[in-house]
Automatic annotation (TrEMBL):
Origin species: Paraburkholderia phytofirmans OLGA172
InterPro entries the UniProt entry points to: CB, DNA_brk_join_enz, Integrase-like_cat_sf, Integrase_catalytic, Integrase_recombinase_N, Integrase_SAM-like_N, Tyrosine_recombinase_XerCD
GO molecular function: DNA binding
Protein name (database record): Integrase
Classification lineage: Bacteria, Pseudomonadati, Pseudomonadota, Betaproteobacteria, Burkholderiales
Coiled-coil segments on the chain, per record: none
Domain Tyr recombinase residue range list: 131-314
Length: 321
C-alpha cells in the first residue's frame, strides 16, 4: 500500500517518470491469433492463456530485433523444442508444445506471415494412455493432511486449500478460482468452476472442509476487496496463483519424505481417484466426481487398480485353453 501511494504521489508531483515496457514486434501476431482462438475456435480462457504464453516465449527467444517472423524456419522450431527437452520438459509436454506451435504457424501461413513451417513441425510420439496416474498412497495423503496443524494465517489458509484438493480432487486452478460467493453456507453447497468444461459443478460441502474454510475466513484471511477465497497473507494482498498451490504441496511432500515422481498439486487428484477406485466406486462415478468430460480420462485409473487386476489374473482359464 505504501509503495502504491508513494508512486502515485511522486507521479502527481512530476518527480517520477514511469517506464513503459517496450512492445515486442511480434506481439501483434500473437494477439491476432488470440482473437482467432477466442472468436473463431471458441477455446476456453485457460487454453488461450496457455497458448499465448507458450507462443510468446518461443517468439521472444527466436525473434531477434533485426529478425521478422517471416524469416523463421523449421530449424528454429526444432532448436527450441530441443532446448526445452534438455531443460526438463517431458515428452507429453513437448508434444503439446509442438502442437501449439504447429497450429500457430498454420494460422500464420494462412495470413501470409510465414511459409513452410507448420508442415515440418514434428512432435515426440505419445501413445494413448501410455502413462500411469501416479500419486501418493492414501496413508501418505492422510499423513500429509495431518501435517497442516499450525495456527498461523499461512497454516490455516494452506489447510483449507489442501482439504479441497484431497477431498474433492480439484485441480489447482479450480482452487484459486474459488470466490467467496461460491460457498452456499445455508444450503451447504460448494460451487466449483471448471475452466476446461466452461461450466460450474456443485458438491455437498463436507463438514471437515467447511470447518477448515470457515476458520480460515474468521482468523486468517486478510481484509481485501478481492472476492477470491484464497489470498496471499502478506502485502501486496492478491489472489494466489496455481503455481503457488503446487509449491505448497511440493514443499510439504518433500519435508515429509513422501517420494513420488511428481509432487505437484495434481498428484493429490490422482490419489483421490485411486482412493475412490479402491473404495469400490465405478469409473463413471469417479469421472463425474472429478469433472471429466470423457470416460477415457477416467479409464486410465483402471491400470492402477492392483486389487482388481490381481482378481483378473487369478481367474482359472484352464477350461478355455
Amino acid at each position: 500500500m505504501f509503495i502504491h501511494t508513494a508512486t502515485a504521489w511522486l507521479c502527481f508531483l512530476g518527480r517520477l517518470e514511469e517506464r513503459h515496457p517496450t512492445r515486442e514486434p511480434f506481439v501483434r501476431y500473437v494477439e491476432h491469433y488470440v482473437d482467432f482462438m477466442r472468436d473463431q475456435r471458441g477455446l476456453s480462457p485457460a487454453t488461450i492463456s496457455n497458448c499465448r504464453d507458450e507462443i510468446g516465449h518461443f517468439l521472444a527467444m527466436v525473434c531477434r530485433p533485426d529478425r521478422a517472423i517471416d524469416a523463421l524456419t523449421i530449424h528454429d522450431v526444432d532448436t527450441y523444442l530441443a532446448y526445452q527437452g534438455n531443460h526438463g520438459w517431458s515428452r507429453v509436454s513437448l508434444h503439446a508444445l509442438a502442437s501449439t506451435l504447429r497450429n500457430f504457424f498454420r494460422y500464420a501461413e494462412g495470413q501470409g506471415w510465414a511459409t513452410d513451417v507448420a508442415c515440418g513441425i514434428e512432435a515426440p510420439v505419445v501413445y494413448r494412455e501410455e502413462g500411469l496416474p501416479l500419486g501418493p498412497d492414501w496413508d501418505d495423503v492422510q499423513r500429509f493432511v495431518a501435517s497442516f496443524v499450525g495456527d498461523s494465517a499461512i497454516d490455516l489458509r494452506n489447510r483449507a486449500m489442501i482439504m479441497l484438493l484431497v477431498v474433492y480432487g480439484l485441480r489447482r486452478g479450480e482452487v484459486v478460482l474459488l470466490r467467496l460467493e461460491d460457498i452456499d453456507w445455508c444450503g451447504e453447497i460448494l460451487h466449483v468452476h471448471r475452466p476446461k468444461q466452461r461450466c460450474t459443478q456443485q458438491y455437498p460441502l463436507v463438514a471437515t472442509v467447511g470447518n477448515a474454510i470457515l476458520r480460515y475466513l474468521k482468523e486468517a484471511r486478510p481484509r481485501s476487496a478481492h472476492r477470491e477465497l484464497f489470498l496471499s497473507v502478506e502485502a501486496p494482498i492478491r489472489p494466489l496463483s496455481p503455481a503457488r498451490v503446487s509449491d505448497i504441496v511440493r514443499s510439504r511432500l518433500a519435508v515429509l519424505g513422501i517420494d513420488i515422481p511428481r509432487r505437484g498439486a495434481h498428484c493429490l487428484r490422482h490419489a483421490n481417484a485411486r482412493h475412490l477406485l479402491d473404495a469400490g466406486f465405478a469409473l463413471k462415478e469417479i469421472g463425474d466426481h472429478l469433472g471429466h468430460r470423457s470416460a477415457s480420462s477416467t479409464r486410465t485409473y483402471a491400470k492402477v487398480d492392483l486389487s482388481g487386476l490381481r482378481r483378473v489374473a487369478e481367474i482359472d482359464l484352464g477350461s478355455l485353453l
